[in-house]
Design brief:
This protein has two helices and nine strands. The protein is of the alpha+beta class and 196 residues long. The chain has one domain: Coagulation Factor XIII, Chain A, domain 1 (Distorted Sandwich). The strands form two sheets. Strands 2, 3, 5, 6, 8 and 9 form a six-stranded mixed beta sheet that branches. The chain is globular and about 35 Å long. The N and C termini lie far apart (69 Å). 35% of the residues are buried. About 12% of the residues have low confidence.
Length: 196
């Protein structure tokens, strides 16, 4: 009787293992400082977030931004329709982190899975950005204000990138963090609303 029960349980475990491993392998990372929209959803600070509240680390899309990558209006979700709530500007009411224009700041990526990394890049919106509209390339300064090359190295833990908030900025802005992966065709996108 015990043998009859053991074999089906073993088979069930063998079948379930790849599914469990695949679920873990799909986990990746997001900016925790300043807190990204996906992080705020996962923490329950923002509600009605859909699936992203359960997997804030999964905002993965094609790399090559800004020349390629997610379409305009879908950048905060990495072009992934499952996470479209991140592209909803919510009337410009996303919680914003207060930062100081021209001051130094430690940008932190939190990882649930670590990938060989090409770089971390940070873009900020132009003056006159309208926070009530979905993010487009035209809303962003054309070049990142901070680029940190990693040359294919795999992070061993969370990563802090020290940079300077662009001077002369004021009011509500958005910082787009892009984590470029070295060994896949993808990058991770992380939008953080800030007040300067």
């Amino acid at each position: 009787m015990t043998r009859k029960l053991t074999i089906p349980l073993f088979c069930l475990a063998v079948l379930a293992f790849p599914i469990l491993v695949a679920g873990v392998a799909q986990a990746h990372g997001y900016t925790a400082k300043p807190p990204s929209r996906s992080y705020l959803c996962a923490q329950g600070v923002v509600t009605d977030c859909g699936e992203i509240q359960y997997e804030p680390q999964s905002v993965e899309g094609p790399k090559g931004f800004p020349g390629s990558g997610p379409d305009d209006g879908t950048i905060c979700a990495g072009g992934n329709g499952r996470f479209a709530e991140l592209d909803d500007p919510r009337g410009g009411a996303w919680p914003a982190t207060s930062l100081t224009s021209g001051a130094g700041y430690d940008f932190v990526w939190h990882f649930t899975a670590r990938h060989a990394t090409t770089s971390f890049r940070y873009f900020i919106t132009r003056d006159g950005y309208d926070p009530t509209q979905p993010l487009t390339r035209a809303d962003l300064e054309p070049t990142p204000f901070l680029s940190v090359p990693w040359n294919g190295i795999r992070p061993t833990g969370d990563v802090t990138n020290h940079g300077t908030i662009p001077s002369g900025k004021s009011g509500r802005h958005l910082i787009l963090g892009v984590w470029d992966i070295a060994d896949t065709g993808n990058a991770f996108y992380s939008c953080a609303d800030v007040l300067l």
